[in-house]
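Technical annex B. To support the medicinal chemistry partners, we prepared a structural model of the target in complex with beta-D-galactopyranose, based solely on the information shown next.
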Amino acid sequence: MPFGGDYNPEQWPEEVWSEDLDLMKRAGVNFVTVGVFSWARLQPALDRWEFGWLDRVLNLLHGAGIRVDLATATAATPPWLARAHPEMLPVDERGVRATFGSRQTWCPSSPVYREHSLALVEQMARRYGSHPALAMWHVSNELGCHNSRCYCPTSSAAFRTWLRHRYGGLAALNEAWGTTVWSQAYGDWDQIEAPATSSADRNPSQLLDFHRFSSDALLEQYRAERDVLRRWSPGVPVTTNLMVRSPFVDCFGWGPELDIVSNDHYLLGFLPDPSADLAYAADTTRGCARRQPWLLMEHSTSAVSWQPVNKAKEPGEMLRSSLTHVARGADGVAFFQWRASVVGPEKFHSAMLPHAGPDSDRFAEVCRLGRVVERLSELRGSTVDADVALLADWPSSWALDGPGKPSSLVRSGAAANAYHGALRSLGVTCDVVPPDADLGRYRLVLVPTLYLCDDATAEAIAGFASSGGHVLVTFFSGIVDVNDHVRLGGYPGGFRDLLGVTVEEFFPLDRGETVRLANGGTATLWSERCRAAEGTAVLDTYASGPVSGNAAITRRDTAWYVGTALEADDLRSLLVRVTAEAGVRPPVPLPLAPAGRSGPATFDITRRRSGEQTWLFVINRGESELSVDASGHDLVSDTTVVSPLRVAPGGCAVVRETPGR
Ligand code: GAL
């Protein structure tokens, strides 16, 4: 099981390196990512290459039995390149060109950047392609993190090329973009620009295509680097570290391009429940990996350095976070970074080896984690049990977050987070999957605010329901087609027949405004004038507010519709009912929280499986002991467990379950 982190030895004198290796051994590190930001060290000038130091690093690591995820080093360019080609620097939507002096200061469509980056990749691949320490290649770093949307003339030209390919002719483009509105009909390709800031709302269909193009431009860079690697280093897996919680690129589309899907995740200290975001990220990464195991490429041992207030992790949180990723499909645990920097913007970012040195609580915690991860090796390759799919889609999110919606309070991801969180509090695991996923294996499919929905997706969901699967669709789903054009005849056009409802008009609610539901629940954010067709059961109606008396929650056979945002407890109660009807159960029977205020999930309970063998993960974030029915061997405490398994507050267990029990 890979355990380690980003290793940046170029920040340190060579005499520190041997201490690094000794301490890595002590911590159980067996995997490091090297060279992510080393371009300037490797190529200090156009015609000068310096690989000696990296040769020594790789040989040392090999000697210590540590496997290397070698970066292509293309994420940050050296100053000489930016100086020679200032046109390569990205331009933001206000037209401001970045200056050199941070990282990712390159335009994704720049031919100059492409040429120089691939020359570097070729050097790396030729030199290290069959190095015995090499475990995998790491293309660039978090592609798009800082430069995902560039509005420079080169990007505009590349956008036009992309559009020609997508539409063939201008007539099709004008139709797709609805350019009859506001006098935007294009008569020549050269009239089209990247949609930078304008005087009023920009064309939403154009914006949507620009998001698609921008994701593709970065994917092209990934593919170009990968293809060089494959040429010179065949058979070595290639990855790039995704950021599945970010809007930058369409990670579901990228997943199949990666030999091993890897993700970076950092707890967001300002969220009410940062672990909910972590669980969602892990379930999404599994969706990118099409249910196969994936690699946690980066997280932190403690605080980061880029949030408004960088909160340190409480003792035990490192283990809980790492195990939550593994519980949800990670086959490997890595951190940014091995040794804390003393210079640069990230010098106060935590690391495996903190400023305080090895004689520290944090390093001791890292060493303990290393021992646990080693024991988890036996579950590598196993998959995560999940009977529920939650559909998510980057293009739909881009479109939803574009201008001119009924409510700017309805943001992408919010409904998905709420449903995912509610399921998690019931102990139910769900895969977060793209709309083209194979739904056949699930009992229940959730469709939370899938604003944009193409015909194939609408058909697939309807087909799933007609073969007996349960589907739950929420408000403002299936509203527009692939070009962000409204589907006519009453909302939600894409799902109207499936759900047996017709919505005539939306009545969004203000921040803090609520509406009573007839069954005692509370609606927030959204209400609508909704009519149920014959044969559709109305399960709840609005009891106050502008659409009092209208249907709020309905059901037609196995298709459920929730036309508003329910408060957490109401949502949870609804999901208790829906999961029961769909035959979805948590991995182990759990005592349900008493009715009333249940709060966020206080545990993560999942099961991984390989053939007949299963492993039950129990991570207790609550304040009282958790007692569940499990017997076997706990790989965290390395002890035998006879049911009931008792997990203390803040504790974790990973039980290799006795088969057949
Ligand atoms: C990531 C990045 C790392 C490091 C880390 C700090 O986004 O890939 O290089 O900057 O954040 O949290």
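Notes passed to the chemistry partners:
The first strand starts at residue 3 and ends at 7.
The radius of gyration is 26 Å.
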